Amino acid sequence: MALAPKRVLTQDRLRSAVQELLLETDWSEITVQHVAASAGVSIGTFYNYYDSKDEALADVRACLSLMIIKDINSLIYTQASIEFRISLLIKYFVNILNAKPEWANYFFKADGFSERLEGGLVSLLEPMVLEGSMSHRRHNNPKLTASFIENGVFPLLKEYHASRKTLPEQEATQIVVLALSSMGISGDELLHAGNLVCPVTPLASLPQSILELEKTQAGYV
């Protein structure tokens, strides 16, 4: 197989540099000079690829979001019920907090899911809330309910991450119960969904070579 063009390799180094810096410090403190130095390129080379550091972050976010969403979908769509899917989605991010330190830094050094995940958690929750509303004839506002859940989950996980604490399963269950209660879910279905255990996800460690990821997804050995 032919080697990737130099331009592709350089962009991959820039993307890896952005990830590495995100794991170490807040994005607001990172400069274009930091990204270029970490990638081993000149500032001029950086601007051959991106107009700003925020554009570089947006590019990395888009690439990593594909990996994250694929991982989430392979997990949640093992479940038929909306309640179980939402439970697994929330506990997925609890597991990242508890067991995936690089990814925890990636997500919870941000000020919200939307800074690290395309569309934020709302983009994943909203269609599930809508489906649940239609199947159970509940009158939820899907976007409002999804935003309510996201705005409740993220600050709590961020606080635990900042304190370098893990979130016990019992408390994760309580978060799920509160989230599902906001959708009007109650009784046994609420308890069963709240107690669902999410397996630790197999996400690769960061920084991740987007080039290698794309090769893997394309079926290269």
TrEMBL record:
Residues 31-50 bind DNA. GO terms for molecular function: DNA binding. SUPFAM superfamilies: Homeodomain-like (SSF46689). PROSITE patterns: HTH_TETR_2. InterPro entries: Homeodomain-like_sf (IPR009057), HTH-type_Tx_Regulator (IPR050624), HTH_TetR (IPR001647). Transmembrane segments: none annotated. Keywords: DNA-binding. Residues 8-68 form the HTH tetR-type domain. This is Bacterial regulatory proteins, tetR family.
